[in-house]
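For consistency, the fold was encoded as tokens, which produced the following:
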Amino acid sequence: MSMVLANSSAQDTEIVSPPTDSISAVSFSPTADILGVTSWDNAVRLYETNAQGQSQQKAEYKHEGPVFDMCWLPDGSKCISVGADKAGRMYDLASGSSSQIAAHDAPIKACRWVPQANGSGFLVTAGWDKVLKYWDLRTSNPVATVALPAKAYTLDVQNPLMVVGCGDKTIQIFDLNNPGVIFKGQDSPLKHQTRVVGCFPSAKGFAVGSVEGRVAIQHMEKESLAKNFSFKCHRLPDAPKAGEQVAVYGVNAMAFEKAKGYGTFATGGADGRISFWDHDNRSKLKTLDAFPPVSPSAPMTPIVSLSFNHNSTFLAAGVSYDWSKGHAGNVPGLGTRVRLHPVKLEEIAPKPKTR
């Protein structure tokens, strides 16, 4: 893939009063510039942001253990979070109250809300108990449960497509028109551990990112299978010379642009950089330099989560240690921050094709 490098960190800003421990997920409201941030400090924080990249904390609620993921209801009135306390909790922005709405027998790693055409919807949770559960918020018990072959590591939904990345390096694909069974299980197209999956906005395929600094593009329709491919990314140097050693960083985060309809996506890596991709044209649109570390002597801090806001004018990035090197890698000066990047058109719009 072709590469364009741009240092845009000078225009980026940071969220005020970030979490006190590693970030696990960032997620913008689908209707307003309110950003949710989940953390290993057991808290979910909500921040109001504006067009200048300024922010202030709006609310906070707690789990009884580290929080791993979150999602929003379509009207933005409530958010849902899951974590190591084996619980799913819903927070009502209007009342400021939270309540438990889901439970597993082990930590819950991921959650997504699935909207329905009739205005209703349901919650999906996937856990380290190797189980996927569907929840109707009007009842206290799951409406359906599906066994997974291994622990769930990552989950994404673009109705009717749902994709789950599991700890055994398999990808479990669901057709939500028939949610009670796995539509297709396949080995990951990548060789190493899956870190993140993301569904195309068209629901016609998905992308997989792994610890080996690669992304795989997978199409669902038979006539498009020939378009499947994988590419290297989040590696330094970007254009190595013959025999030069390359540092490989995991692909930790992925977010597809949906508001403007381009269908392009961003990845965040353990190298601290964000890259924008046009998978249809197999090209890289731009790469942003890593946010400067808190301490000049510290290595670049990984990107652990990404989220576009509701109109794709901002991209939020959780910047904190990703635990890929264990406890020894959590060196002083890495910091825990949330980066707000004002999105430019050339970062998300496909380039005109040249003859």
DSSP finds one helix and 31 strands in the chain.
